[in-house]
Amino acid sequence: MEEDEQPVSVAAVATPQLVIAVRELVVAYTKGVDIVKGASLTVGDREFVCILGPNGAGKSTLIKAVFGLVKPHSGSVTINGVDMTGAPTHRLVESGVGYVPQIGDVFVDLSVEDNLRMGAFTSRHLFARHRDRIFDWFPVLADKRREAAGSMSGGQRRLLGIARALMTDPKVLLLDEPSAGLSPANVHEVFGRISKIRDEGVAIAMVEQNAVEGLQVADTGYILDQGREAIQGPADSLLTDPRVRELYLGLRTAE
Questions:
Q1: Is the CB of residue 123 less than 8 Å from the CB of residue 168?
Q2: What is the pTM assigned to this prediction?
Q3: What is d(CA 91, CA 215) in angstroms, rounded to the nearest whole number?
Q4: Sign of torsion over alpha carbons 100, 102, 104, 106
Q5: What pairing do the DSSP bridges indicate for beta strands 97-100 and 172-176?
């Protein structure tokens, strides 16, 4: 996208009560080399947002900056109406934000239940309540509660990583490429579980390379290009937009 181009809105989006508002965020790992170049997005209450874009577009860096893992150079991150720009991660967790990284999301030598116990570090007195709710949402984890996480399949470990983040009872869950390295069957299962989490009242902001399947489960899509949002709109509109299909989804619209 050229420097003077403005983001294209595929269709007007009705904005629910905002959980996250990111405004003109600029993020760099090395001084003078910006990865995120003024990106903005919002996540509403109970909304499922999917963040897409080509490799190097700044998707994962953006979500890490929202969670305080990377300090932004400028711009703002507001959580539930409170400015949390550059706040440490423990404050984000206390404010109701959960985060699941692309890798390293479970302790492979610990049991499923002990992984969940580690996730409940801000609410240990509510561990049993949150654990039982998680086991209702993820029956496979209940069946394997005594097993080491390292003995589970890739899809099951990904579900455990998500479940562990939910042990703090977050209002919004940030997911960094949950389908990475998974088989198509596991991708379908993981996305289905993420949709059920949203149905239970948890807003979702998901960075994803599997663009088509991500948009199929999301409410709203943002496409990042060269560090800023290029296109945004309802997910179903992005799926059918000819330019989006060809440039970003690798699909051609039937003549």
A1: yes
A2: 0.89
A3: 30
A4: positive
A5: parallel
Residue among 103, 116, 118, 16 at smallest CA distance from 64: 103
Do 115 and 106 meet the contact criterion of CB atoms below 8 Å apart?
A: yes
In sequence order, which residues have a C-beta less than 8 Å from that of residue 205 and are 6 or more positions away? 20, 41, 43, 49, 51, 63, 66, 172, 173, 174, 175
Distance in angstroms (rounded) separating the CA atoms of residues 92 and 98: 8
CA–CA gap between residue 158 and residue 149 (Å, rounded): 10
- Which residue from 249, 159, 168 is spatially nearest to 202, judged by alpha carbons? 168
pLDDT tens figures, 51-109 = 999 988 999 999 999 999 999 999 999 999 999 999 999 999 999 999 999 887 899 99
| Half-sphere exposure in the Cβ direction for 237 (13 Å, CA) | 15
